[in-house]
Amino acid sequence: MTNSTSNSQNTLKQLLQLPVMVAALGYLVDMYDLFLFNIVRVPSLKELGFEGKQLFDEGAMLINTQMAGLLIGGVIWGVMGDKRGRLSVLFGSIIIYSLANIANGFVNTLPQYAVCRFIAGVGLAGELGAGVTLVTEILPRQIRGYGTTIVATLGLVGAIAAFFVADLFDWRVSYYVGGGMGLLLLILRVNIFESKIFVDAKNKHIARGNLLMLFTNKTRFFKYLMSILIGLPIWFVVGILITFSPEFAKAAGIAEPINAGKAVMITFTGQVFGDIASGFLSQYLQSRKKVILLFILLSLTFVLVYLLVPVSSSFSFYLICAFLGFCNGYWTLFITIAAELFGTNLRATVATTVPNFVRGATIPLLALFKFLEPDMGVMYAALVIGVCTSAIALIALWNIDETFTKEMDYVE
Predict the structure, then answer these.
(1) How far apart are CA 222 and CA 224, in angstroms?
(2) How many Cα neighbours within 13 Å face the side chain of 333?
């Protein structure tokens, strides 16, 4: 056996070890549950008695409620991940959002729906950050980009699976399936182990999970803020352009009805390929920043196409959604950068709060969109926000360090 073959087999063995696969499967369930509401928004609200513009207004309220849960949960789980360990988050978060989604299948009123989405949001907030943190700490720096790519790919498969489940079953059953998958995943998590880097830091009795450390040091706060701003274009696309794709298609003059669930599925199919491409390209170029720069510019290009280029058919519209999804494929790469920028005692706090603050940015972005839309119209209101989020992300990316070769065994 040649050294090359032996090294390849060793790399594959490390990438397929149980903690990596369990983190990836956890993100699959996370993404299924997170985007299920985007897919069943219309049928579920119609069954509860809402029609017309209420589908947008009440849908926006429920999305904001879920995002508020993600913001709060991001802080809770991030701090817990650094204080008590990455595994405590992987167990606790999945229990909460699994039970919340099962309960969501029983709702009969809008307030009940909102409470379930909020609790589910709190639970969902912990999964990705803890998983990425664990993967970056247990894998060698030369291959950890491949590890986070596996997590991203399986996670986005979960979003695609949500479409097919919702297409085959009633929206209530779709929520039961998501909750059931989460509870089944707990069985696999019994046998996974904590990262050695975290255990060593814990044994040294170093201060861990102190959220204030991110705000009391100017350099650290600036680095943290830039980490968040890089991801804004992703959730502008997902939270506004794709979630409300039927409204945008109508404003564009497309006569054929656009299915929001289908748009979500197609977008995340594109994002699966985008995440794979960005992960491998990052490994090839040995750079996170160069790849993220490319994807932000591509995203802006297709946002302009989505909003400004006339299309007359649903096929063309869905094709643009697929390209938008591909351009969103730096999601896990940007979370990896956030994890790599900070020491072990703050890594889970950062890796968990950063994506959830980006998700939570949907709240002000959606509020700004609703404020601008009456005067500017749907298309131009979104255009202003899309250009601004891309510009902010590019400035933020310019102001952070390259992290590809950075070692993880250090503390703040």
Answers:
(1) 5
(2) 32
Measured CA distances, 110 to 24, 53, 113, 297, 364 (Å):
33, 15, 5, 39, 22
The pLDDT value given to residue 173: 96
Question: Which amino acid is it at 196?
Answer: K
User: Is 392 in contact with 236 (CB distance < 8 Å)?
Assistant: no
The pLDDT tens digits of the residues spanning 349-379 come to: 998 899 888 888 888 998 899 899 999 989 9
Q: DSSP string spanning 373-388?
A: HHHHHHHHHHHHHHHH
Helix (H, G, I), strand (E, B), or coil: what is residue 342? Answer: coil
Domains with residue ranges and CATH for the chain: 14-190+210-398 (1.20.1250.20)
- 175 Cβ contact list (under 8 Å, min separation 6): 36, 40, 101, 102, 104, 105
Distances (CA, A) of 284 to 177, 281, 328: 38, 5, 19
Q: What percent of the chain has pLDDT over 70?
A: 98
Q: How many CB atoms lie within 10 A of CB 143?
A: 15
Question: What confidence tier does 119 reach under pLDDT thresholds 50, 70, 90?
Answer: very high
